[in-house]
Write a structure and sequence with these properties.
- InterPro entries: C-type_cytochrome_biogenesis, Ig_CycH, TPR-like_helical_dom_sf, TPR_CcmH_CycH, TPR_rpt.
- Pfam families: Ig_CycH (PF23892), TPR_CcmH_CycH (PF23914).
- Keywords: Cytochrome c-type biogenesis, Membrane, Repeat, TPR repeat, Transmembrane, Transmembrane helix.
- This protein has 340 residues and is an alpha+beta fold.
- It folds into two domains: 220 residues, Serine Threonine Protein Phosphatase 5, Tetratricopeptide repeat; 111 residues, Carboxypeptidase-like, regulatory domain (Immunoglobulin-like).
- The protein is built from twelve helices and eight strands.
- A hairpin with an 8-residue loop joins strand 2 and strand 3.
Length: 340
């Protein structure tokens, strides 16, 4: 058994070495879909304790890969086809021995390198089922789920992140993912709390702590710009049985001038309710219509089974009514009505 794993590991390492250079350009800031290959690549190539993970503001996939990027390109006799062959060998081996957690984990990481996040998700699911108390494995699983869903950290991904942190509250990758998920929701206070927890992880690599501090400072600066309001959104008990955890929830601010064009919009899922979200000027939909341009607003929340922004019959709604933006601390919105 050990000899088999040594052979497979050697094949994967060799094939990985020749495909590293094309992937080291790094993701575009704010683009959630770019992290599949990068995340799997870094996880496969270096020990988890050495990774600088998910640290760029607004992009949960932005891995700090300066050391890898600065390494000289190496010629290698193996090709990507060698890795495909190694992965096929590994997959076949697991069909004969499906209770090998280490094997499923290696297969999942290999699929991530090959930009096959759907296959990686299934392999990680098998690995987690066999090794349910491994927080790092769960964090990797969350990454794969997000990669297979265009970088979306809500829903199932969020649940896996939470389960990883329930096992190990100091799991670095899970904390970084949670911070990025909060930032994507414009929950700046929540993102800062997760980054602060990450900074306090024992034996954290200095570069990770430095990036976390930079993220905190930039997030605070962003949150301080313009007007903002915190909204506590909940769903009535009567409507809970009529929704699915994956249904989309839109939370948006409207000006007290009759216009239905939102001043700011936040998006989350039913599985996250109840939740407190932040609406601010950075979410303005059109020039000249920001929260800070109006003193009186209303906050609406709507559950959309279709995920579409346009209201439809059967959607579930709630509204705060008119509130003064200046005096608002936390605005309560309870979703308790159905659109006819």
């Amino acid at each position: 058994m050990m000899a088999f794993w040594l052979i497979v590991a050697a094949m994967l390492t060799g094939a990985l070495a020749c495909i590293v250079p094309p992937l080291l350009h790094g993701p575009t800031p704010g683009r959630g879909t770019s992290h599949a290959a990068l995340a799997g690549l870094l996880i496969a190539l270096v020990p988890a304790s050495a990774l600088t993970l998910y640290m760029r503001i607004g992009d949960p996939a932005a891995l700090a890969i300066q050391e890898a990027a600065s390494a000289p390109t190496r010629e290698h006799a193996d090709t990507p086809a060698s890795m495909e062959a190694a992965v096929s060998l590994l997959a076949a081996r697991l069909q004969r021995d499906p209770n090998d957690a280490q094997g499923w984990s290696m297969l999942a990481r290999s699929y991530m390198v090959l930009d096959r996040p759907g296959d990686a998700t299934e392999a990680y699911r098998r690995a987690v089922a066999l090794n349910p108390r491994d927080a790092e494995l769960r964090a990797d699983y969350a990454d794969a789920i997000a990669s297979a869903n265009d970088g979306n950290l809500d829903g199932a991904t969020s649940k896996v992140i939470e389960s990883a942190l329930a096992i190990d509250a100091n799991q670095p990758k899970a904390l970084a993912l949670a911070a990025s998920a909060a930032f994507d929701r414009r929950d700046f206070a929540g993102a800062i709390r997760y980054w602060e927890r990450l900074m306090n992880v024992p034996d954290l690599a200095p570069e990770i702590g430095q990036q976390a501090r930079k993220n905190i400072d930039e997030t605070r600066a962003l949150a301080a710009k313009g007007a903002s309001v915190n909204v506590r959104v909940s769903l009535s008990a009567e409507l809970e049985k009529r929704v699915r955890p994956t249904d989309t929830v839109f939370v948006y601010a409207l000006a007290d001038d009759g216009s239905r064009m939102p001043l700011a919009v936040q998006r989350l899922s039913v599985s996250q309710l109840p939740a407190t979200v932040r609406l601010d000027d950075s979410m303005s939909m059109t020039p000249g219509r920001r929260l800070s341009d109006f003193s009186r607003i209303s906050i609406d929340a709507r559950v959309s089974a279709s995920g579409q922004a346009r209201p439809a019959s059967g959607d579930m709604m709630g509204s705060s009514g008119i509130v003064s933006l200046e005096g608002a601390k936390v605005v309560e919105v309870r979703i308790d009505d159905v659109v006819r």
